[in-house]
Amino acid sequence: MRGVLLELAYDGTAFHGWAAQSSARTVQDTLRGAILAIDPRASPLRGASRTDAGVHAEGQVAAFDTELDIPARGWALGLNKHLPDDIAVRGARAVPPAFAPRFAARSKRYRYRVLLDPVRDPYWHARAWRLPGIDVAAMVLEAEAALGTHDFAAFRSSRDERASTVRTLTRVEVGREADPRLISVIVEGNAFLYNMVRILVGTMCDVARRRLHPGAVARCIQAGDRRQAGTTAPAHGLVLEQIDLVLPEGAGHPWPR
Amino acid sequence: MRGVLLELAYDGTAFHGWAAQSSARTVQDTLRGAILAIDPRASPLRGASRTDAGVHAEGQVAAFDTELDIPARGWALGLNKHLPDDIAVRGARAVPPAFAPRFAARSKRYRYRVLLDPVRDPYWHARAWRLPGIDVAAMVLEAEAALGTHDFAAFRSSRDERASTVRTLTRVEVGREADPRLISVIVEGNAFLYNMVRILVGTMCDVARRRLHPGAVARCIQAGDRRQAGTTAPAHGLVLEQIDLVLPEGAGHPWPR
Predict the structure, then answer these.
(1) Mean pLDDT of B44-61
(2) Residue B159 pLDDT more than 90?
(3) Stretch(es) of chain A classified as CATH 3.30.70.580
C-alpha cells in the first residue's frame, strides 16, 4: 500500500463544496470518481480543508492510498484526463499510507476578493464580492486588530462546536490588485474555525460600508459574541490559495519539478 | 423616437455568440429580451461587432430606439436588473434614433490570452488558451510583421466574402500579465475580417510552438492564402475590450459619470 498526496485547484462555482454528499455535485465525490476509474480499490480521500459551496481553491490538498504502482506524475496526468474542466490536479507526490493532510497542515492562506466597481461586471461575478464605494482604509485598521493570537469565538458559524476557539493569524493584509477596481484580503493562519475567514472579512467590510462602527473586529474579539460580528461574506469571493504541510518522513519528490 | 447606446460586458462561455439565433442562447437575444421587458415596442438591436460563441466582451456596443422617455442611466440600471449574471450593461448614453454603431466604429481593441502553465488550471480554463513551453520571443517578431496596413486575405475565415481584405492594425503587442504564466496579445485596428484576430494569433502561436517557421505572418500577408496561415486560435481566449466610436451630433452625456 502506498499513499498519494494531491494538490488541487477548482472553480467552486458549480460545486456544492468539498465534502461528499449523496445528492449534490461535490469536489470530493468528483475527485473520488476519477481515482476509482483508475483504481477501483483505492481508499477514500482525506482532504485538508472543507471548502463551502462556491469557494474556490488553488492549493487544496488531499491524500488517498492505493496498491497500484503508479508514480505521482502518472496519477496527476491520469486524473487530469478523467476530471472535468473545473477541477485539476496541480501537483502530486508519494507519501506513506494513511497520511492525513488535515493533521499535517501547518498553515493555510486564503484570499478574499472585493470588487469596488459601481457597475456589475460579469467577468468577476463568481469571483469577487461587489461592494462599491467602501472605505478601504477602514479595512486596513480592522485587519490589524485581527492579526495575532486571539479568541475568535465571535468569528465562527453556530454550526462549529470545537472546544477551543483560540487561533493565530500570521497575516491579515488588505491590498489593491493590478486591476485597481479589486482589493484582496489575504488571511493566513495555523488553523481556522468554521466560516472564520468569511465572518472576519464580512465584519471588516461592514465597517468599510459603515454598517458597523470602526473597531468592530477588536470589540468582537473581546466580546466573543457572534451576534456582534458582521455579515458572513459570500462564498464566491473566497479562494483557498495555499496549505503548508509538514511532510512525513519518506515523502517522495514533488511533481511537477 | 430616441436612440439608446449601450456598452456591454459579457462572459461568452454560455452564449452561442452575439448574433440572434432561433435555437440557441445568444447575447443579442438575451439583451433584446431585457429591453422588451421594459419597452415591448423597442426597435431591434444594432450591434457594433459580431462575436463568436465563447468570445468574451468588456466593451461591446449596441444601440436601439424607443419611444419611452427614460434617461440613459435608467435604461442601464433597469436592464441590469433584467439581465442574467453573465451579461451586464456597463455604460449608456442617449443618441439620435437609427444610430448604427457598426458604421461609427473608428477602431476596435481585442485581447487574446495565452496561459503558459504546463498543468491545467480551472481558473483560466474558459478564459485563456493553454500552450505551455512556447517561444514567446518568436511571437513578438510575428507581431511586428502584422502591424500596419496590409492585405489580410490569408487571415480570414472562408465564410467571409467581403470584397476588400485590406485592413490597418495600429497595435499588435505581446506582453506578460501580472500573473507571469499569462501572456496577452493586444490587437487594435480600424476594422477586422471574420476570424482575423483568431487566425492571426493562431499563426503567431503556431510559430511559437514550432509548427510553422518564423516569418509565417509576413509570408501569409504576401501570399494571401488562408491555407498557409495557421490554426484558428480557440474562441475562449479572446476578449473584445473596447470599441472607439465616432459619436453622432446630439449624443448625450455618458453614464456613469
Answers:
(1) 96
(2) no
(3) 2-99
